[in-house]
Amino acid sequence: MADRFDAALKRYGLPLFHPEWAEVCRGIEKECLRVTQEGCISRRPHPAALGSALTNPFITTDFSEALLEFITPKGQTIGDCLGTLETIHRFTLAHLDDQEILWASSMPCPAGTKGEVPIANYGSSNIGRLKRLYRTGLSWRYDSLMQAIAGLHYNFSMPDAFWQPYQRMLGHQGALKDFRTERYLHLIRNFHRHSWLLLYLFGASPAAATSFVEGREHRLQRMATGTMYLPNATCLRMGRLGYQSEAQRSLFVCYNDLPTYVECLQDAMQTPYPPYEDIGHQVDGEHRQINVNLLQLENEFYSTIRPKRVARDGARPLDALVQDGIEYVELRTFDLNPFLPLGIDAEQIRFIDAFLLHCLLGESPQCDRAEFFEVAENILRVVEEGRDTSITLQRGGRAVRLADWGGEFLADMQHAAALIDRFQGSGHVQSVVRQEEKLRDPSLTPSGMMVDAMQRDGSSFCEFSMAISKRHAQGLLGKPLQEDERKLMEKTAAESLVRQREIETADAIGGKGFDEFLRDWNAWQPLGHSIGQGNKA
After folding, report:
1. Is-contact 426 12, C-beta < 8 A?
2. FRET label pair with 181: which of 48, 172, 196, 213, CA 20 to 30 Å apart?
């Protein structure tokens, strides 16, 4: 262990690695659908017992009223993080009636006979109406059923104790917030280059319900059970049938420095897009979207990773980044693993932490337009063909076998795993070794296991997902909540309802009308507008 730790220090040019640096901060945001016992998306409103979707810090909704989002607090240990996520699951299941269940897969079940996906409702406040209008815009711009796809977002940051010593090691003379921002962008560039590997290792959406592709162009094949799939697909959720947007396909977002990043998104949020102009901003007195620009707001940019900062009330995300710098990164690549009750487990978390530490400490050249689109093509290839490990990807304009590149990267990132294991036990290096097994045998990947299970049992995607969803629900409900856990969830839900009413009352008494609020929202200019031009790549 000592030899491995010393080798890791040498690999990253570090004179030392303090024990507290291994205490990385994490949080999970997990989406999952409420579905009926017949396997259709629920059309019932958000359960009142879960509190306000606008203000509950633990339970909210994403695109649809039926698409729940579970949120764990920042900075917990792995055990505490998973424990909180399990508590939220069990509390939620306990407050769904016998007609509903939580869907275990990322790809959605059918929308039902009406074919409609109910858009999330956040109340009558201006911010609540804006959130709903944003989702209404998404329903006009993209397929609503596509917006019901569920994913798992992973928030990561290094502990505060890491930054000043590391800044001194690298001889950086500027402000600490600028150094932290530079290094998180350094991490993001490396993550972007290698995110295809996470799709291979953890992708769990190789198939979809037949209804999901009806009326859409696709390359999927039909299983004997009627399910649509690709034989070697890993993560269709991140491909042409999922979060890939034709409108955004030519959008180049550069991560070399913060001004350039802000400028890229700002331009997209202020550039009208003809197909969205055709939809219309307001038709017959009803708003259809926030605006007719390429992006209604920052979150519409579908990326595998985002630089983030918790914004003060009312502040725009880009303003918060410009003013105070990057606070953490949000990974958006992960499918729900249907074989796991929570969709993720401790082994995967350990691997993610080692992966990100390696991206932070390793070399990270500046990116350019050619590499950006090369990465996008690599992702699409792994999404559709990844479990054929003989395929080649492009690295700097040269073809390299997926298995070779993946093996090289995993061997190198064991150095980061060794740094954490020195102070956090032995699980991180072991988690990397387990992923190496998946490179040698694609059937061990979640996507491979799903296809094998459906073909072995003769079950469709929906039958497979419903059966495993019911098993997870029975297991979670079989372990009652502790009294303190139940009281915390109930208290938080009740307080969130009060908070929503307070926001709505304040708007009704002295706030702007929604039309004025929306005009001011669309007239916004980010602070980044005045921070100078970045280095255009």
Report:
1. no
2. 196
CB 375 within 8 A of CB 368: no
pLDDT surpassing 90 at residue 242: no
- Tokens 């399910």, located at residue: 227
Instruction: Print the SS3 string covering 387-425.
Output: CCCCCEEEECCEEEEHHHHHHHHHHHHHHHHHHHHHHHC
Q: Are 138 and 288 in contact (CB under 8 A)?
A: no
Report how far residue 67's alpha carbon sits from residue 241's, in angstroms, rounded to the nearest whole number. Answer: 18
Query: Exposed, middle or buried, 222 (CB in 10 Å: 0-12/13-18/19+)?
Result: exposed
1 has pLDDT over 80? no
Region for 273 from its dihedrals, namely left if φ exceeds 0, alpha if ψ lies in -120 to 50, beta otherwise: beta
User: Per-residue pLDDT tens for 218-229?
Assistant: 889 999 888 999
Q: What is the DSSP letter of 64?
A: B
Residue by residue, DSSP assigns 367-386 as P-HHHHHHHHHHHHHHHHHT
Q: Which of 90, 208, 155 is nearest to 451 (CA)?
A: 208
Chain Cα centroid distance, residue 20: 27
Please list, in sequence order, all residues whose beta carbon lies within 8 angstroms of the beta carbon of residue 104, skipping any fewer than 6 positions away: 32, 336, 338, 343, 465, 468, 469, 472
* CA torsion through residues 48, 54, 56, 61, sign: positive
* pTM of the predicted model as reported, rounded to 2 decimal places: 0.95
Q: Other CB atoms closer than 10 Å to residue 484's CB: what's the count? A: 9
User: What are the extents of the domains in the chain?
Assistant: 28-383+446-530
Averaged pLDDT for residues 325-345: 97
Q: Calculate helix-pair angle for 258-270, 317-324, nearest 10 degrees.
A: 160
What 3 state SS string does 225-240 have?
Answer: CCCEECCCCCEHHHCC
DSSP 306: E
Q: For the domain 28-383+446-530, what is the CATH code?
A: 3.30.590.20
Residue 359 φ/ψ, nearest 5 degrees: -65, -35
In the numeric block, which tokens belong to residue 339? 């074989």
Interval 139-152: pLDDT, tens? 999 888 889 999 99
pLDDT value of position 537: 34
Coil, strand, or helix at residue 525? coil
Distance, CA of 124 to CA of 517 (rounded, Å): 13
157 forms beta bridges with 25
Count the residues in the chain.
537
Calpha distance 202→120 (Å, rounded): 28
